[in-house]
Amino acid sequence: MRQARTDRSTRQDYLYGSSAPSLSRGSQTEFEVIPGRRGASSDVATLPSSIIGAAKAVVVVALVIAMVCCVRVGLSAASITASIEANRLSAQIENARSYGSDLEVQQSRLSNSTHIRVEAASLGVTPPEKTVTVVLGADVVATDEAGNLSLSGSIAALENQG
Fold first, then answer.
1. Cα gap 128→35, rounded to integer Å
2. DSSP label at residue 123
């Protein structure tokens, strides 16, 4: 290994306004890699392939069971959500039916002739003292071929009636 020089005489000092000193590549630490080999008689014991295969099978079965459980939990959550929504809609239907029944009762009460007379009396409306029947004669209004009202035809019909 080489040792970097650090004495003041060889190091250049940095002065304000000057450029930075350059570093020499020779001052870096050098190292070497020695390739090694693993010996045929290693101390690491390996497991038999049947145990490794059984462990892989156990892991696969555990993953399948976990996936089935996740699907089951998802379906259970969806069914609970659907049940809650169905109950909410049933409650809304019941409220609408009750409100509809209340409106029917109120409509029949308001359309009752006795109630109408009482309300009219409270507003100052009284029944007429006498009734008169008016008989209208034949209609004197005439129309032209296009279906529009015709003033001259109506006057002529009025003159013919006499």
1. 126
2. T
Q: What is the pLDDT along the chain (162 residues), one digit of tens a residue?
A: 445 545 444 555 666 777 766 666 655 667 777 887 766 555 557 888 899 999 999 999 999 999 999 999 999 999 999 999 999 999 999 999 999 999 999 999 999 999 998 999 999 998 888 998 877 777 888 888 898 988 888 888 888 876
Handedness of CA 18, 22, 27, 28 (dihedral sign): positive
Taking the C-alpha atoms of residue 114 and residue 103, their distance in angstroms, rounded to an integer, is 19
Task: Give this prediction's pTM.
Answer: 0.40
Collapse the DSSP code of 149 into the 3-class scheme (helix H, G, I; strand E, B; otherwise coil) and give the result.
strand
CA–CA dist 130, 45 (Å, integer):
123
One-letter-per-residue 3-state SS of 60-115: HHHHHHHHHHHHHHHHHHHHHHHHHHHHHHHHHHHHHHHHHHHHHHHHHHHCCHHH
The residue behind tokens 């209004």 is: 141
